[in-house]
Amino acid sequence: MDVYEAAKQGNIDGIESAVEKGCDVNALDKYGKPPLWFAVQNGHSDACRILLARGACVEGQGPSILELAVQGEHTEIVELLCRHCKVERQHRCLETAISLGFHGIADFLVGTQIFEYQQSQASDIELLKKDGFSRRETTAFQQWERFIFVRRSEKLNLHRIFFDYALLLATKADRNAGLRLVNLLLGGEKPMADANCMIYIDEEIETPLTNAAEKGNLEILATLIEHPNISLTICGKYNWPAFLHLLASSESLASEKGRAIAQILSKESQPGSFLIDSKEARLETVFKNVLRLGDDALMKQVIDLVHGAAGIYILPLLIRANETNGLRWILNDDIAHASKPPPILWVLLCNFFQCNPSSEALETFIQVAVFLVEKAIWNRMILVCLNSRNFCFAKQFFYPLNEILPREVAEETLAGFSQAATDQSLVREWADKGFANAALWSAIRSGIWKTPAFESLLSCPNIDPDEPFPRERSSDTAEANKLSSLSGNSTGEKRKFPFRPPTGNSLRLPLDPGSPQSHALPDYQMQLMLLAQENKRRLMMARNEQMEMTTGKGILAWTGGKSPLAWAAATGNVELVEALLRSSRVNVNSQDAQKRTPLMHAIAVNDWQTVEELLKIEDIDLNLWDAEGRTAVFHAAQGGDLRIIQLLTETQKVDFSIRDCNGESVQDIAKKKGNQDVVAALAA
């Protein structure tokens, strides 16, 4: 048995035997851990004694072995190890003991009086501050509160840095829960903690004031602001003052108290600070909240504070406040290439101009649009809409084409469509680039298809109401058209096959159309062969599309490549089906990549009401084949819903002689399912 396994098991004889054979008790295993580490981890105090007696070192062994003993609540081992290490450099051990509620161990450590740091040099104290502490759950303050409150009648021989840490925990506890501890630590003539303390937590500076602002703890924040020694300009995480942290909390700004505190903090913030927002997400939140709040004074204060550090994200604020000098600085610095601002900022800005159409800032906004269009960052249609003052219609162009628009933007798009329709070149470009397809699906997804504006959208001749979402790429469309031409069908037409297979014939594996044998085949067999080849290609395309869906490319998973009508049928939305069918431009016989029709999708979910609505359309084709050669009645037989089967058979349009690609008839499918009622209904 090696010394590591012996230490893990607490085997004294094994440890002694290994040492007698010349084993180094400080040698590290392949994971970089000494034998003492395993003995401590498993709580074997006798094994620890033997190893220490044989020369095992406690200091300088990677992760603190003393802290490991504290984390395991091995009190006896903690007392044993303390004699062999420099405890004053083990400040995290005491923090761990208190934060985890191991107060017996904490009392022992405090009792050593080493953590008072009376004998420590100033440089050592600074080193401890920079070493900092680990990040804890927000509930850790409860253990500190309990520890301090129980012992507050005694003299706690602790350096102030521990009380500062407790103050940090209290200020960021959820829902002002740490207010009592804050009052205790900062109360009296000689406060236990420093209200302006700055401590590294996982290599980020934290302060009580910025912590409270970031968490939106307004009661604690108000207490800190009233403290006589507080510095309101102190910066914490991200090198942000409390002012910016508070503005990043939309919930705080929603309250009257939060806005009042923001006003106080804004007066103390120091312009010219250099702020860095490396992830380009935090300042975005601040700008969004300030735009929504609409307070010009706060807005200008934020601009002064972050000027030169926010990149293109600050543009909406600059325009809103008509700060043309700052705008020119950013554009000249060519920072617009760095990233695109989030769509919501530009939407909010458009909202402002809708309410203030005569604002002088509009000309500045249009200048920005010209610049960004020239840089190919914005679509030209944004500039067209701004020049025509159609702010409603402009909002959609800030979002990627493969994303569903937020409901409010989808509504605005429909509202602005009537004005946009007067510019036919705009509408053509809108449809050609796929924005019309996105608008149509956004209206469907947002549930705003009951409005007259939606009907107007469907009637627009530039829109194909049978397109899936997102709009097919031009290369995909060309390939689809090429394949469709083999059978004389294309998307958007009422699809009816120009032939029917003879009764009793089943499909065979097709020959190559260019082979000599193909010329001797009858015309209908040649067409069957072409159809089978088309099915094969479509299946391959469908598999490719499925792969694209899983990798975030191509059609989004929730639409499944369906047309709007097919999607409505597949989701059982009979009202949407009715609304779509009111438009003569919607193709009731459209087929998806698997060649399934809306009728097939409705049957698949046993939605007889939708089936009934679809069957009311006179030119609906019940005998279209899917990729497996099956018609609607095949799907009905598979589902076994007698009501749907009766609806289909009552039309007297069902061709029962059709066989699928496996040569099976619908009766064969029904018999396999074993539902005698379905078999009888099909035989009637």
TrEMBL record:
Q: Which UniProt keywords apply?
A: ANK repeat, Repeat
InterPro entries documented for this protein: Ankyrin_rpt (IPR002110), Ankyrin_rpt-contain_sf (IPR036770)
Q: Where are the ANK repeats?
A: 31-63, 560-593
Regions annotated as coiled coil: none
Do the record's keywords include Ribonucleoprotein?
no
- Top-level taxon of origin: Eukaryota
Q: Where is the sequence biased in composition, kind Polar residues?
A: 482-491
Residue span of region Disordered: 465-517
Mention any Pfam family matching this sequence.
Answer: Ank_2
Protein name, please? Uncharacterized protein
Q: Which species does this protein come from?
A: Penicillium arizonense
